[in-house]
Amino acid sequence: MSTNASHERRREGTAAADTDGPESTPAIAVEGLTKVYGDGEDAVRAVDAVDLTIERGTTVGILGPNGAGKTTTIKSLLGLVLPDAGTVEIAGIDAHEQPRAVYRHVGAMLEGARNVYWKLTVRENLEFFAALGGQSVAGTRDRHDRLLDAFDLAGKADQPVNGLSRGQKQKVSLACTLARGTDVVFLDEPTLGLDVEASLELRRELRRLADEEDITIVLSSHDMDVVEDICDRVVILSEGSVIADDSVDDLVQVFETQAYRVTVEGTVSGSTRSRLHREFDAGDWTETGDRTGFDVTLTDGDALYDVLDVLRDAGLSLVDIDGHDPDLEEVFLEVTGRADGGDES
């Protein structure tokens, strides 16, 4: 599922760039970022002393349940929300003291396809957003042609955006975000509304931008497959605080407790079920015909033999054992304490 080869290339590139000089300045540096809405007992601490450093040319996923502080954090990084405490630097520039200077480095897609002008053509939108950054039509023509080709929009370049499909509008929105050639890009649900093929194309293009053009991408998405495919690193927020910050691969390895689906012949008695639940957290029991299935999650590979001993003591015959490795979605649920299916509101 994860593009490990791309991630490895990115890590090597980051290490190579980690030298003294301008290139070693982080793309994003956040210290003590705090934002509180309301006063007194009604106050809500949306962001609570967040520290974050993102190196140039990396792709970072910002995850968290609803209300975790993702939107406030991202808008604070963009200078759209004034924090109560803390500092934000983009390319070494204070985002709140010098917002115009920061704007030259940053592009953002926060409202899906709603941040483009539907009465303008696709190319006119690209030219308009580039012009906002002081760039000429002639100077951006080649870049815009590459973007149109990359997002399969060349044939629609002279059509008004209003007549395009939802997925095409989403592509136009992303292309406009990249139209100025900024070195830091913020994306909120970039694959929303795209079909599977278009989503895969977009993922490949985002990886290419990070790997080949050294663009820093900060991505927020509820699609764990997208995050796992694109991102080098994941930051998970909960109740305004960072509760996990690591590479995708390392986060998955931390929670690499092996999960098994066990199937036996016959019915498992209540006492045996209780023992399996108590000792191995067995659950999700199902009975199909003369067979019973259940899940166990084990942190020690040898513990599987202990499960088999319990089954043997109960006179149960093993039919099948299926194992699977955790993915990023399981890690997210575990880290945020929502593995039991709790409400995310």
UniProtKB/TrEMBL annotation:
The keyword Protein transport does not apply. SUPFAM superfamilies: P-loop containing nucleoside triphosphate hydrolases. Residues 28-264 form the ABC transporter domain. Residues 1-13 have a biased composition (Basic and acidic residues). Residues 1-25 are annotated as: Disordered. CDD domains: ABC_DR_subfamily_A. Coiled coil: none annotated. One of its GO terms (molecular function) is ATP binding. Gene3D superfamilies: P-loop containing nucleotide triphosphate hydrolases. The keyword Transport applies. InterPro entries: AAA+_ATPase (IPR003593), ABC_transporter-like_ATP-bd (IPR003439), ABC_transporter_ATP-binding (IPR050763), P-loop_NTPase (IPR027417). PROSITE patterns: ABC_TRANSPORTER_2 (PS50893). Keywords: ATP-binding, Nucleotide-binding, Transport. Belongs to the ABC transporter superfamily. This is ABC transporter ATP-binding protein. It comes from Haloarchaeobius litoreus.
